[in-house]
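hiii so my PI (J.) wants the whole complex modelled not just the main chain, which honestly fair. so below is everything: two entries, each one labled with what it is. i double checked the lines twice but i was tired so who knows lol
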Amino acid sequence: MSVENAPVVDVDEAAIPVEKKMYYRFESNDKKEFRVSELAIQQSETLNRLVEAMGYTSEDVENKPAIAIENIDGKTLKLVFQWCEHHKGEAIPVDDGSVPKIVEIPEFDAKLMDIDNGLLFKLIWAADYLNIVQLLNVSCKKVANMAQGKTPAQLRRVYLLPSDEEDEAAKRAAQEAQDPRAREVEEEFEERKRQGGNSFF
Amino acid sequence: MLAQPTWQGIPVEVKKDIVELLDYKSRFRLRVCSKIDKALVDGSPFHISQILFHVTDPFAYCFLLVTNQGIEVRITTNAVEHFVNIFMQKRSVVAEVKIVCSAQSWLINRTKEVDTPLIRLIDMIELLGPNFKTRTRKIDLFIRGMEEYYYLEVLQLFDPKFLESITLSRGISRGTLEKMTEFDVWKSAKELHSQFVQNISVDWILHMEKIVVFFEKITGKDVDKLIKSFITRKDIERGFGFQLRHGNTLSLRKIPCLNELNKDRRRTRRNYVYYTQHFPTTNKELFFFVKISNQTITGSACCASNYIEDFYSCHPRYHGPVLDIRECDQRQRTFFKQGHIVCAERRQRVREQAVFDNYGDYSQYGSYSIRPVNFTEKKDVVNKHSEPAAQAIPFNPDASLYIPSSPSAV
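here's the output for the full assembly
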């Protein structure tokens, strides 16, 4: 995808000062390209370190290929960069664990996270991967709020939680796929145990 | 690895963050969803704003009010177990713990061997051994009646490394207070709050950073000692200070440091007279500003550049105007005679009478035994008439909070 055709994240034009700023280009795993300001990138510790290590000039940004983020799809990355642009320049919170964490979801973030559960979990994963502390806090809070007043059965449905039986079946299937003999050995072990043998061998 | 759009797809550390943000009830409901989530919830510390342990009936009834993420949960069964369970996690943080025992005091008597909730809580924590720590920043104690040794026992339950503030919501006898000052919890506390009359010595609170106390009696030398302790301490910061109310008449002439440094800084506002003075501190950027009125003595470390404004911002209760000294002097001449520097006395007698009538004299009930809490060795039996706590109390806090889902709800 060329630079001209790349979807650009909505940025409040009035908020941008007159001086020239550098915009980095990033590419998601489904080849969608985004232009993000240098200040917005500072919200992500991972990306900030990456661009610092690369040491790109403004010519490099235009001429070299976009920085690929292979673990995150375009839809999620768009949300992430929208959040970063809105909160650029804000202080990054430091949690030392000494006081109970009180997280409040701002109005913009609440609107941004008004999405389906699948995308919300992807957003959390992306915020964790890119190390965006405040986005991770608000998205975790959003997920925590979803649990309020729910019964365990409702929670299973909201969080798509597998039951113990499903967990064990999945574990067994994974084990069998890895080693077909493992189940036979396990059954043999159980049989010997029932017979009262002290040792398998 | 690509993100899986489910709960299972997110990293365990993030799941723990989410569990810490859950309200108290939701934690327990997530806990019973599956074995994996049970382990996750059990391994995540609690981050709780406030816990209220309230004993209303001496024999059985008590409840625990847990406020977390702005949501209050009232637990009436297994309250003691829930209290202990919160602190079982080593990294659990509770901002404030309130212990209110409003049951009739003569019924809560250890000598009668009645297993009350408060005794059960103390015994259970004792049983868990020295490694168990009740970590909180602030405690608020309201224990009614003459069984004051509960203050001593309860105070020993808290970890002195974490505790910063002690609030006494009831008047305590001098003997009990003196014993409380011997504990590490008291020695390491940075704040003391008590709106109730306390027969307390200034020497017991000189190490604290913020003091709000109603003294039964205070002398000029005590005030002097307190002011000097603040202006000479090396670690003084903005906001350090005290607000003392006193039940006796206090003459400014008897406060040596005031007479040494400042001769005439009286201010008036209508019929209200107060005396202010600022002292230099070890930090050049801070002044220690003292205001003495007919009701209270207030001192606070304020920014040197604008110490008067800063003082009133530290004490927002005062809503009156900050008067200019010249203006004050003019008003002073109008309403008060020159050289009359005694704090207002006329309301003092009425106040003293009103307060001390309600304040019980604990000595009339005779002496009581102090039972120090022993953390050094574990006990097998709580007392000779009760079963061992581990057997008597099923440690299953989940039982009270688990609510089975109805088919219609899903």
